[in-house]
Amino acid sequence: IIRYRLLPNTLCLFRRFTSSRSHTQLPGEDSNLRGDGAIRRTAPYGSTIEQTYAGVLSFLRRNYTRNLNGVDVAVTGIPL
Q1: Torsions phi, psi of 3, nearest 5?
Q2: Which residue, 7, 49, 65, 72, has fewest beta-carbon neighbours within 10 Å?
Q3: Distance of alpha carbon 51 from alpha carbon 61, whole angstroms
Q4: Handedness of CA 36, 47, 25, 30 (dihedral sign)
């Protein structure tokens, strides 16, 4: 049984807790780098839509480079 005098309050709460937007925008979500950006990215940091534990030729989603001039530490190997 629905009590009609409580219905306006319920609708008010529903409107307050729902958003008019379809989804929340994440930083980097509208990036042109779909898939793996480890090689194509121009900034030193990846976007939030990239996973930090996996990627082509990268560790923690850093940019891939063959130039090791001025490098103090290099992480190499095959992750399991």
Answers
A1: -90, 120
A2: 72
A3: 8
A4: negative
The token pair at 26 is 């994440």
What's the CA gap between 78 and 80, in Å, rounded? Answer: 6
Model confidence pLDDT, tens digit, residues 20-33: 555 555 555 555 65
Segment 35-53, tens digit of pLDDT: 566 666 776 665 566 666 6
- The Cα-based distances of 47 to 22, 25, 26, 53, 57 in angstroms read 21, 13, 9, 13, 17
Domains in the chain: boundaries: 26-68
Q: DSSP assignment, residue 62?
A: P
Q: Would you state the structure tokens that stand for residue 8, as one six-digit string? A: 């306006």
The pTM score is 0.35
Which residue stretches of 1-80 are H helix? Answer: 7-17
